[in-house]
Design brief:
It is built from 3 helices and 4 strands. The protein is an alpha/beta fold. Helix 3 links the parallel strand 3 and strand 4. The longest helix has 14 residues. The termini are far apart.
Length: 107
């Protein structure tokens, strides 16, 4: 078990979202909310809100198409890591106020 961020990569239609949901369902985070955001169709304010919500709930943020995240969105995500809003540990134990990040891209 791990709380490390996860990147799922693969071609369109291979089941990345399905795998992300299965990972969430089978993890120690299964009783926490799974918040899904499509980076290719989101505004910076939406990403900021999703990060804040996941953090406040101690949930999991699934960012789809992270390879389409704008430069501003990348900065927001980096800032969230710097502020320790995401769990980043090899241990399953986590703070109730940290979110977990799962991302998927189209490679």
């Amino acid at each position: 078990r791990t709380a490390l961020p996860i990147l799922i990569s693969g071609p369109a239609g291979c089941g990345k979202k399905r795998l992300a949901r299965a990972l969430h369902r089978e993890s120690d985070w299964q009783n926490r909310s799974l918040i899904t955001l499509d980076a290719g169709q989101t505004q910076p304010a939406d990403l900021e809100q999703a990060i804040a919500t996941a953090h406040d709930m101690g949930g999991v943020l699934l960012i789809c198409h992270i390879d389409r995240l704008s430069e501003q969105g990348q900065d927001q995500l980096a800032t969230a890591f710097q502020k320790n809003q995401f769990a980043f540990s090899t241990h399953a134990q986590r703070s109730h106020r940290r979110a977990r990040l799962i991302a998927e891209d189209m490679s």
